[in-house]
Design goal:
Number of helices: 12
Largest sheet: none
Strand content: under 5%
């Protein structure tokens, strides 16, 4: 009897494992797409901060030193950001012999500033691109996007995907769902709801996945074209008993 149970259990476990592997493979590069949106926004933030720094050049001597320090920090962040855009992720992280310091050092040296905070996000995305998911989780968790309704949802989406890659499925679902709710738009929200739903499916939680898919269905808009809207009926049918 014991042998029969063993023989039956292996095939039953395999589909769930395959679903989880399929999710990871399919979503491995979702972070790249999310990163493009995030970095476009960050580029605007860096530009605005540099513009603000230039306007403060006439400030009192007592406050000039901190402002000049922050201007240097932003320049260093911009240099590493260019390496990121060129997909030179190790160099973006660690710097090089030319004097570029890299995100890790920026995050450490300016840890209490917005620049240091952004460096944490960039570092996490670099590690994700390099398939170093535990490190990606570490730095993405350090990023504080509270109050930033533009960057925060995309950063949460990246963190949710990173959780999925390190086997923290429950955290992945919760984080992706939060990303969808914070984004509150027809571009990012459907993607994050569906990613969270697929993880729930891999856990055999069809009813919970259905609730998320129905949220996407409710967001359908005839004036907006989206592959998520085009295929959402298939997701719903798949988990409907």
């Amino acid at each position: 009897m014991a042998e029969n149970k063993t023989t039956k259990s292996a095939p039953e476990a395999q589909p769930a494992l395959n679903k989880q592997e399929d999710f990871l493979l399919k979503n491995k590069r979702m972070i790249i797409y999310g990163a493009v949106a995030v970095l476009a926004i960050i580029a605007g933030i860096i530009f605005w901060n540099n513009h603000r720094a230039s306007q403060l050049e006439a400030a009192q001597t007592a406050i000039q030193a901190p402002e000049l320090s922050m201007e240097l920090a932003m320049m260093e962040l911009a240099q590493s950001s260019q390496q990121f855009n060129d997909q030179l992720f190790d160099r973006a992280l660690n710097g090089d012999s030319t004097g570029m310091v890299g995100f890790l050092r920026i995050a450490q040296e300016y840890s209490s500033t917005k620049v240091g905070n952004l460096a944490n996000l960039y570092a996490g995305l670099c590690y994700a691109h390099m398939d170093k998911w535990q490190e990606a989780v570490e730095y993405l968790e350090k990023f504080d996007g509270v109050g930033d309704f533009m960057v925060s949802p995309a950063a949460l989406g990246a963190l949710g995907n990173a959780y999925a890659h390190v086997g923290q499925a429950d955290k992945a679902v919760a984080t992706l769902t939060k990303a969808a709710e914070e984004a509150d738009n027809v571009v990012l929200s459907p993607m994050y709801y569906i990613q969270a739903g697929e993880i729930l499916e891999s856990q055999g939680k069809k009813a919970e996945a259905l609730k998320l898919y129905q949220k996407v269905k409710a967001m359908q808009n005839v004036s907006v074209s989206s592959p998520y809207f085009d295929t959402i009926d298939e997701y719903i049918e798949r988990v409907t008993e």
